[in-house]
């Protein structure tokens, strides 16, 4: 089984890259299932209901979320009705939505389990239960249904990610790091599990984590947070292609990058009516 994991979709440039590059990536690598981190798809932080539907329509079989999972009220209110959207599994029980689910690779295809765990370091607005305590129990449950298991570990600390990779050895097919939005060069297969510290970001390749460079510099100089301005230069799809054998063990993992056509015009920071009129209504929903 070949799986395409799309690195965190960030803002309008990320959705633009999915629209123009996903079909080619699927065809080139012959993937049968697509997982996409969408934690920054809407405005760089969170995922809106319309974007969730649009990205699924474009070919993402599952959308994973991290610490921004509850930022958009319209998604929170509808999360129970969107089986292709997963929030972190290690949240409190009353949290809406699911953190792990078993899917099929196409009509009548094989089962594949996808799960999301949230790290414990560096998040101030959302706190998950211990992912190390949760992982063995989670994998035991999922492996009863299918040998194919992929975990998105949304975490900030490299040490935390690598420790979870070691814990998952021999138990999962892949554990993919997300959140930092910078593609690392350490993709590897360790004891049958495909791992990478971070798969990168799908969005502007000429940016700071998908955000406008000048706005980020101003934030660090002034101390005033500002994530409202998208970056649009050099849109790119980033991610990894994972191949699993019949037993669910990883055979290979490799990073991929696809340059998208330039965007027609830079999105305005104020999101004015004139910009909405000229933009793709589905991309900017």
Task: Kindly list the characteristics that best describe this protein.
six-stranded mixed β-sheet, Purple Acid Phosphatase, chain A, domain 2, 14 strands, 285 residues, eight-stranded mixed β-sheet, alpha/beta, 26% helix, 7 helices
How would you characterize this protein structure?
- With 285 residues, the chain is α/β, with parallel strands linked by helices.
- It contains seven helices and 14 strands.
- The protein has one domain (2-275): 4-Layer Sandwich (Purple Acid Phosphatase, chain A, domain 2), CATH 3.60.21.10.
- Strands 1, 2, 3, 4, 5, 12, 13 and 14 form an eight-stranded mixed β-sheet that branches. A six-stranded mixed β-sheet has the order 6-7-8-9-11-10, covered by helices on one side.
- α3 (73-76) links the parallel β4 (62-64) and β5 (85-86).
- The longest helix has 19 residues, at 11-29.
- It is globular.
- Mean pLDDT is 91; it is low at 269-279.
